[in-house]
Structures are given as structure tokens and as C-alpha cells.
Amino acid sequence: MQQLKVIYEDNHIIVVEKPVNIPSQGDKTGDVDLLTIVKQYIKEKYQKPGNVYVGLVHRLDRPVGGVMVFAKTSKAASRLSNQVREKQFQKTYITIVNGKMEQNQGTLEDYLLKDERNNKSKVVIEGIKNSKLAVLDYEVLKYDEQLDLSVLKIHLHTGRHHQIRVQLSSRNHSIYGDQKYGGRGHGKQLTLWAYELKVFHPTSNEELTFYSLPEKIGSWKILEDIQGLESK
User: pTM of the prediction?
Assistant: First the structure.
């Protein structure tokens, strides 16, 4: 079983770093998933007999790594799920994209339509049936002229299917390593990482902030000289 990196844990929640290329929960591939790994960790650590309860309240796409919170009780799961619905979860991502952004910061708004059959989404005009509004803010942390790549910090306002990947690729700033949406770096790991998560504790209601950064190797070496990125 994969080693689990625990960022925070108490009686109600457990916050972990999701490794890349592991599904958040079981899927048709049958590959080992993070939910199962977390359950196994709790079972072994506390020597619990029988089934262990762990509530999945949000997901990250399989190729994306970073911060995820799981509930350890059904009450915590219900309250965290409510925060997701009420848009109280604040998610910030780090990504590496093609080219130089036109502005150092900005907001992207699009209507996205999911293609279930091909598991892709695309930008469409407002009013198209089943399309959903997608909004994110971005800030440029670094532009590497030699590589012609930019490092962005992304704050999500909505959680649409492949939202960050689609919105950036539609503006010719595909994420490095994103074969699905035309990114450079063929065969490289998708460079999208869930860097920061703010939630309210399900029982104390205290606002908690958790961080996770990818190892600064390979494509992520570009993060080395960026100041102000916390990893706690």
C-alpha cells in the first residue's frame, strides 16, 4: 500500500497530500485509490476492526496532486459537504502553462460544456444547454523566458470538470504536460497541483488553511526561486 503523507489529523478530519496518478476514489480501472489508502491508514494506526468510515467530500483529477481533506465521521462529512455546496471551500492551485500571460493577474470567465463520452470539456457561448459558468482568478508568479513557460497561482470560484485545464488551453496557455488539452511536454506529468485549501473545521468552525507543494524536481524545478510559496 502506498505511503500516506498526512498534513493534519484530529478526531473529525484527516488532511493528506494526494499523490499524482492515483484516483481520489475507486473507479473502473480498479487501481488503488486514495480513499482506500486513507481507510487502511486509519485502520492500521488505530487498530480498528471491521470497516472504517472515511467520507469523501471533494475530489482531485487523477493526474493532479496536492491537498485533500477527508471526513472521519458522518457528521463531519455532512458539514464539509455543505461547505463545498455553499462555496466555503477555498482552493488554490499552482500550475505551469505555455507562453507569457497577457496580464500579471486577472479573472477568467467562461461557459463550459462537458462531453461525457470523451471525458473532456470545452468553452461554449452562454445559453448552450447543460453549459455551466466557470470562474477563476489567476496570478503570475514567474515567467521563464528560456522555457517560454509561466507559473500561475489559480484561485477557483467554481469547480467545473477540467475547469483550469480548459479555461487556460482555450486562451493558448495550455498546462505543461496536458496531452488532453494540447499542452507542451508530451509524455510529461501534468503540472497542476492543489497547493492550498481553506476550510472551516466541522465542529469548532475555526478556519483552517493547509498547504502542499510538489517536490521541486523535473518540470517543477521552475518553482525553486519563487518566494512566498509556503509548504507547511
Answer: 0.94
